[in-house]
Model the fold of this input.
Amino acid sequence: MRLSVQTDYALRTLMYLAAHEGHRSIAEIAEQYGISKNHLMKVAQRLAAEGFVDSVRGRSGGLRLNQPADTINVGRVVRTFEDYGAFVECFDAAAGGCIVTPVCGLRHVLAGGIDAFLNHLDGFTVADLVGDKTRFRSVWD
Done:
């Protein structure tokens, strides 16, 4: 299993904002991580729409966390950005392509694994991912 680029960028953005005070531009975050500014803009829009960040336009604008980092649940972020309904074909009732779905145990096993993964992530916040803010920021110094 691999998280999507959007989820990866969302988590990295939240971590960056947790470690840095004030508003930070998308360009700054993209440059610091060496990632696509265009992709990050789409992720930032969704982070703002979902209430994780506050987005301010203008010269002194940018992104900042909309709530304390120790209240942003990692499992919730991942659930927001990932589509586990399409993990395999049998998870999507509309697809209906697999003939053995009615008698197959795969769906149950995979669903249990995804639940365990997400429940594990629910035990962490963005603040946990950053740890010591000074040490985290030192990567870029």
In short: Residues 5-140 form a domain with the Arc Repressor Mutant, subunit A fold (CATH 1.10.10.10). The first strand starts at residue 53 and ends at 56. DSSP finds seven helices and two strands in the chain. The longest helix spans residues 106-121.
